[in-house]
UniProtKB/TrEMBL annotation:
Domain Zn(2)-C6 fungal-type: 13-42
One function term, GO molecular function aspect: zinc ion binding
Pfam families reported for this sequence: Fungal_trans_2, Zn_clus
Stretches for region Disordered: 51-87
UniProt keyword terms in alphabetical order: DNA-binding, Nucleus, Transcription, Transcription regulation
Annotated organism of origin: Penicillium salamii
Lineage: superkingdom: Eukaryota
PROSITE patterns in the record: ZN2_CY6_FUNGAL_1, ZN2_CY6_FUNGAL_2
Gene3D superfamilies: Zn(2)-C6 fungal-type DNA-binding domain
Protein name as catalogued: Zn(2)-C6 fungal-type domain-containing protein
UniProt cross-references to InterPro entries, sorted A to Z: Fun_TF, Sterol_Uptake_Regulator, Zn2-C6_fun-type_DNA-bd_sf, Zn2Cys6_DnaBD
Ranges of biased composition (kind: Polar residues): 51-66
Length: 430
């Protein structure tokens, strides 16, 4: 008998092959999944476990083609890197304040769930984005993920019920009750899931549910039946949620473009596509006239503002100059420009994500400044209202820029009210 043939065993195959007890060739996507037309969640070793090098740590603002969605560096082991403590804690704090007890609801009313699923697939999914490839993701890909992830299906039904509450005021109480039930049921499982590091088997449905949470928070006025209770503070909370979600998903976002979820990013960050900002395209831009000039003035404002530890009165600062504070604001302003760049490239097809991406750059210090109604933070937020106003056709954004700008005008120090003139002209038309 000849020598026994050596055998190598690997545990790195894709989850789909493991479920079906097939040998995986560990390619991306693997041959078995291609053959059976299955979405492969296998992450190639060179894509999911890159070694941190100077090349992988480039600041996305250093180059016009780098995306703020792409992390500066990646963990050695997929899912082993936790989000930055401050961002993760902000998100977990928000989720912890969500109801732990699931509201009473007739869970046997399957007809109601079918109604909500039908409405989601025929109406709600089309209101969340403009591009058809991204609509396909919301309409088809997310429900498929929901079949095997119960919390995601609850999120889908909650969003559909919220949309129907907006469309049919006479039946609002019924749909708000359904929204509260499904959202609480989904969040209960989601909280438990993200308490541990995300892994290759669950990061895609986590990303999907995270996207729904952002819409849910934006639609707070629909849920409570009135305007934002405290627009500036409510927006700071939304920024914390967006930042926290991005931080938790950061180790996996570089793989997003290799999945069926890719259109959700491609529709928002257009500079990854071979687009050239031609004069004809720029003429279609929805940015108001004079945007570039006023953005230059805003740069000057940040450069010259006397940042101090405290600001009871900007003309009599009682703290020492804090140059690090200015750095946070300059970064926020750079990402603001990044949002305007995407809006320019989009022409008349501005996606909500192009506006919300500004939140990725906002430090905890900046968000605290918003909560303290500090003048420089309110000036930047007022300019951001101009971008928010561009997407107010959406049912879950409707009126937010006006309410926010009104609140800023009430809270800002009188010495800086002149900085609100251009945002008010763009938002209110006067």
């Amino acid at each position: 008998m000849g020598p026994r043939r050596t055998h190598t065993k690997s545990r790195n195959g894709c989850p789909e092959c493991k479920k079906r007890r097939l040998k995986c060739d560990e390619r991306f996507p693997c041959t078995n999944c291609i053959k059976h037309a299955i979405q492969c969640s296998y992450l190639a070793r060179d894509a999911s476990t890159p070694v941190s090098t100077p090349a992988t740590q480039l600041d996305p603002l250093q180059t016009s083609r780098a995306s703020p969605l792409i992390p500066k560096s990646y963990p050695t082991t997929p899912g082993s890197a936790a989000a930055p403590p401050e961002s993760r804690s902000d998100l977990l704090h928000f989720l912890a304040e969500s109801p732990n007890e699931i509201p009473t609801f007739d869970t046997d009313d399957w007809a109601s769930d079918l109604e909500l699923m039908h409405h989601y697939s025929t109406a709600t999914c089309n209101t969340l984005t403009i591009r058809e490839d991204a609509r396909h993701v919301w309409r088809v890909v997310l429900p498929i993920e929901g079949y095997s992830n119960r919390y995601l299906m609850h999120g889908i039904l909650a969003l559909s019920a919220l949309h129907r509450a907006h469309l049919y005021p006479a039946q609002r109480e019924k749909y708000i009750k359904a929204t509260a039930y499904h959202q609480a049921a989904g969040l209960k499982q989601f909280r438990e899931l993200i308490a541990s590091p995300i892994d290759p088997s669950n990061w895609q449905p986590v990303f999907c549910f995270s996207s729904m949470i952002m819409v849910y928070v934006c639609a707070s006025p629909v849920r409570i039946g009135e305007r934002w209770p405290a627009p500036i503070l409510n927006m700071a909370e939304l920024f914390s949620v967006v930042k926290g979600m991005q931080s938790i998903m950061e180790p996996w976002l570089h793989s997003l473009r290799k999945t069926q979820l890719a259109p959700l990013v491609n529709s928002v960050y257009l500079e990854s596509e071979p687009l050239i900002a031609s004069p004809a395209m720029m003429q279609q831009s929805l940015l108001p006239a004079g945007a570039r000039e006023h953005l230059s003035l805003l740069h000057k404002f940040v450069d010259e503002y006397p940042f101090t530890e405290h600001e009871d009165d900007p003309h009599t600062p009682d703290g020492s100059l804090n140059p690090d504070h200015r750095t946070d604001y300059k970064k926020a302003l750079q990402y603001f420009e990044n949002s305007t760049r995407q809006i320019d490239l989009a022409g008349p097809h501005v996606e909500i994500g192009m506006v919300l991406m500004w939140a990725y750059s906002l430090s905890t210090r900046f968000r605290h400044d918003l909560e303290a109604y500090w003048s420089p933070a309110l000036v930047l937020l007022a300019y951001w209202c101009v971008l928010l106003h561009l997407v107010e056709h959406s049912w879950f954004i409707n009126g937010a820029s006006r309410e926010l700008l009104e609140d800023i005008e009430k809270r800002i120090h009188p010495a800086y009210k002149d900085w609100l003139a251009w945002p008010k002209l763009c938002v209110f038309g006067k």
